[in-house]
Design goal:
Structural class: alpha/beta
Largest sheet: 6 strands, mixed
Number of strands: 15
Shape: globular
Helix content: 25-40%
Distance between the termini: 55 Å
Number of helices: 10
CATH class of the largest domain: Alpha Beta
CATH architecture of the largest domain: Alpha-Beta Complex
């Protein structure tokens, strides 16, 4: 008897998701969709593995049975995680092209109009071109966005997992702050963060925790490297929690000793901007409006923002913990916000070569506005 883990959602929820994708496929005139984005594969099938550096795909026909295309060794985890029972496999070291072609032919799609996620990082140009050559009578069309559009608004069950992930992220930040002390190294801080995240029930993270000390904090997406903590250093922490592959993130900073007047000023600014951004989030407002309000709040203090105001959070796989491909809070984005959307809104005051002060929350768009899912005291913590 094979081992199977419990599904994170009831089967009617997976059936609803598949049905909604099929509606979008019908609107585009597609007979099938080949899904290669790991987050989308997971969303529809619950198939997930850290080993998706090898080609894996979900074949979703307009009618009929769904098929997972995986390396032979990964069929074991497919059987243990996914509700989908039909699998097409290939040996490591062999091209997955033939397995994909054969799956399409067996499904009667050799002359069909087949949607391909052209926007997926996991659909190489060479693979796409060779698949087109292998199915000369088929028509390959762009199927990008058919699954992502469903992921933007979260169900109550998804929000529940994100709330649990927020508790994990909070545990990691708390441990990082408690580990911040003179004479310790950023290795020590990172080790405590990792232990706390895992002990709190966190799965593997999609980014490493960002633990950056002193001027290293000015380097975006920089993390530990062996620096010893000294008086006056900022310790920058940005941590995610992941539960059932749904994530939340949280950013806080500490300072060893008393902060300079300039760091205190910047600390006030980032928290003011965070509050202004959260106050701007409500149903009916556009993503671009929120980004503009964030930029204007920074501009009042003479700071030019280097990034978008925030990005969707939800299904979580490396190489990143955000759902920017689903939705972000960015310049000119016309997408209307809806209740049930979830965003991480990091607000760093980052100047090249100088120490970075920052703060963030993971927030839920509610019927009336915005709720912080992460629950952690705000401030520049002195150690």
């Amino acid at each position: 008897m094979s081992y199977r883990e419990p599904l994170p959602f009831v089967m009617p929820e997976y059936e609803r998701r598949v049905s909604e994708v099929r509606k979008g496929m019908a609107e585009r005139g597609l007979d099938a969709l080949v899904v290669t984005t790991p987050e989308n594969v997971y969303y529809l099938s619950n198939h997930h593995t850290p080993a998706y550096d090898a080609f894996q795909a979900l074949l979703l026909p307009l009618e009929g049975e769904l098929v997972l295309i995986v390396p032979l060794i990964e069929e074991l985890i497919a059987r243990g995680h996914s509700w989908i029972t039909r699998h097409v496999t290939y040996q490591h070291g062999h091209s997955p092209l033939l397995a994909t072609r054969d799956a399409l032919i067996v499904a009667g799609l050799e002359r069909g109009r087949i949607g391909i996620e052209k926007g997926s990082l996991f659909m190489p140009v060479l693979f796409y071109e060779r698949l087109r050559e292998a199915l000369p009578q088929a028509s390959l069309a762009d199927g990008t966005g058919l699954v992502e559009r469903l992921r933007a608004v979260k169900s109550s069950e998804e929000i529940g997992y994100i709330r649990a992930a927020a508790r994990v992220a909070e545990a990691g930040v708390r441990a990082g702050l408690e580990a911040t002390a003179l004479g310790r190294t950023d290795f020590d801080v990172a080790a405590e963060v990792h232990q706390a995240v895992i002990r709190a029930g966190g799965e593997y993270m999609s980014y490493p925790p960002f633990v950056a000390v002193g001027p290293r904090s000015s380097l975006a997406h920089n993390t530990w490297g062996g620096r010893r903590l000294e008086s006056g250093d900022i310790v920058f922490l940005e941590v995610s929690g992941v539960v059932q592959r749904y994530g939340a993130a949280l950013m806080r900073c500490a300072v060893l000793g008393h902060p300079s007047a300039e760091l205190e000023r910047r600390n006030v600014i980032v928290h003011e901007v965070l509050e202004a951004t959260m106050n701007a989030i409500r149903p009916g407002r556009t993503s671009g409006d929120v980004d503009r309000i964030c930029r204007e709040a920074f501009a009042r203090h003479g700071y030019r923002v280097l990034k978008r105001a925030g990005y969707s959070m939800g299904v979580n796989f490396p190489p990143g913990w955000g759902e920017g491909a689903v939705l972000d809070l960015s310049d000119g984005n016309p997408t209307l916000l809806e209740a049930g959307m979830v965003f991480h809104i990091p607000q760093p005051y980052r100047v090249p070569g100088e120490q970075t002060v920052s703060t963030s929350e993971t927030v839920l768009v509610t019927e009336r506005g915005c709720e912080a899912i992460t629950q952690f005291e705000r401030g520049l913590f002195q150690r």
